């Protein structure tokens, strides 16, 4: 009896030890980190697609079985249908060109002029100090609230949308560039002066490259702000554009068309975001990672 | 004629309404091709002196003469290397080294043709297209010194260039610097905290004293060249070291 129970006890501890060994073995399997990274990336991509698919499928399903009211929520298949019709028979394409055109021009102007403004503060401390409160004040104004005035000033055409997109972006970039200018290493400037550099050379060889990452970091925020500016401009008064289309669809209670507008704007926004990612790479080209 | 002369050069700052003497009127006479070290505790006016010679700071009094010409407030007349390597992180090593020539208006191609052989000769061959972030501290200091050398001025100011390096690398860099100094026949002014380093490298040592910053003594180093590891054990070396340690100790006690 005694020896029997002892045997059982022994075999139990044996098994426990074996399990432990197995576990240790499993942990110590050598894995290539690059390979693991690649596998994780693939799984993540699949997961993302799956989640997107589930959301769209659920949207379609819930509106069909009446859990969501399709009058308000529309549904994916109707949106695609309505979108296709307005693309082939309506003005969706020209509206899209109008909106993206105003956004991109406003974004480029705002980023460029904002950068120049921000960088200009390096040249004179006095000028920088005098401007400071006005820059902050202009930043504090809700620019969209000025939209009606701007539309009156610049008309209901293309230019008022460009101006709004510009106003939304210019100060953000200027502030980013200003921070960049303040972050320039004084010793680097000193080193360049000791090599006989003129101020303009210090500006082009040290200040601009030092501030570039700051300017670049504002691009992604700016493209979304520029789009918002353009759409508000179109809401207020316009003959074309996705914003006008959404407003019009809302007025005639065509919710399907409103959703088409929202979907198209989202797609446009994603596309322009990818554009800024490319622009970032371009502007920081030839730098170490 | 001396290569570089400081005649009664002094600097007074104003701080909180009070005048602070950074450097009392100082005289320096440095012959062509000499290696001169400047030692002294912090606050003795070493940096002030260097910034004045480099033309980045105007002295309150006195003159600074390079080949007999007054260079007060004129930057770019002497090579100046600061304690930090100050390489531009977004530029490759090669394009960092040619920066001085680029500022002078030398074409990029010609500048590179001059830089690449130097890089190969002085231990940076193969690193042309690396970024500063990828190099060790010693390598970065080499690059910074080559940048100063390539700028091609007769007088070079080095402000504690090896201060941040470990002892091993430091010794290697000192020997490397002596090699370069021999090859290029430059006049070198070298600031350091390290007495061994000052004796090992120099022909003359200027000992500065703090509060107010002033020149205390000029010590001539009569140890024959070429110098090597054994130099550190020679009687002349040890005697000189004792003497200098004594001088610095006086100042230290005065501060405390």
From TrEMBL, chain A:
<feature type="transmembrane region" description="Helical">
    <location>
        <begin position="96"/>
        <end position="123"/>
    </location>
</feature>
<feature type="transmembrane region" description="Helical">
    <location>
        <begin position="214"/>
        <end position="236"/>
    </location>
</feature>
<dbReference type="InterPro" id="IPR000515">
    <property type="entry name" value="MetI-like"/>
</dbReference>
<keyword id="KW-0813">Transport</keyword>
<keyword id="KW-1003">Cell membrane</keyword>
<dbReference type="Pfam" id="PF00528">
    <property type="entry name" value="BPD_transp_1"/>
</dbReference>
<dbReference type="GO" id="GO:0055085">
    <property type="term" value="P:transmembrane transport"/>
</dbReference>
<feature type="transmembrane region" description="Helical">
    <location>
        <begin position="257"/>
        <end position="279"/>
    </location>
</feature>
<keyword id="KW-0472">Membrane</keyword>
<protein>
    <submittedName>
        <fullName>ABC transporter permease</fullName>
    </submittedName>
</protein>
<feature type="domain" description="ABC transmembrane type-1">
    <location>
        <begin position="92"/>
        <end position="276"/>
    </location>
</feature>
<feature type="transmembrane region" description="Helical">
    <location>
        <begin position="144"/>
        <end position="177"/>
    </location>
</feature>
<dbReference type="GO" id="GO:0005886">
    <property type="term" value="C:plasma membrane"/>
</dbReference>
<comment type="similarity">
    <text>Belongs to the binding-protein-dependent transport system permease family.</text>
</comment>
<feature type="transmembrane region" description="Helical">
    <location>
        <begin position="45"/>
        <end position="67"/>
    </location>
</feature>
<keyword id="KW-0812">Transmembrane</keyword>
<dbReference type="InterPro" id="IPR035906">
    <property type="entry name" value="MetI-like_sf"/>
</dbReference>
<keyword id="KW-1133">Transmembrane helix</keyword>
UniProtKB/TrEMBL annotation, chain B:
<dbReference type="InterPro" id="IPR003439">
    <property type="entry name" value="ABC_transporter-like_ATP-bd"/>
</dbReference>
<dbReference type="InterPro" id="IPR050166">
    <property type="entry name" value="ABC_transporter_ATP-bind"/>
</dbReference>
<dbReference type="InterPro" id="IPR003593">
    <property type="entry name" value="AAA+_ATPase"/>
</dbReference>
<dbReference type="InterPro" id="IPR027417">
    <property type="entry name" value="P-loop_NTPase"/>
</dbReference>
<dbReference type="InterPro" id="IPR017871">
    <property type="entry name" value="ABC_transporter-like_CS"/>
</dbReference>
<dbReference type="Pfam" id="PF00005">
    <property type="entry name" value="ABC_tran"/>
</dbReference>
<keyword id="KW-0813">Transport</keyword>
<protein>
    <submittedName>
        <fullName>ABC transporter ATP-binding protein</fullName>
    </submittedName>
</protein>
<feature type="domain" description="ABC transporter">
    <location>
        <begin position="7"/>
        <end position="235"/>
    </location>
</feature>
<dbReference type="GO" id="GO:0005524">
    <property type="term" value="F:ATP binding"/>
</dbReference>
<keyword id="KW-0067">ATP-binding</keyword>
<dbReference type="GO" id="GO:0016887">
    <property type="term" value="F:ATP hydrolysis activity"/>
</dbReference>
<keyword id="KW-0547">Nucleotide-binding</keyword>
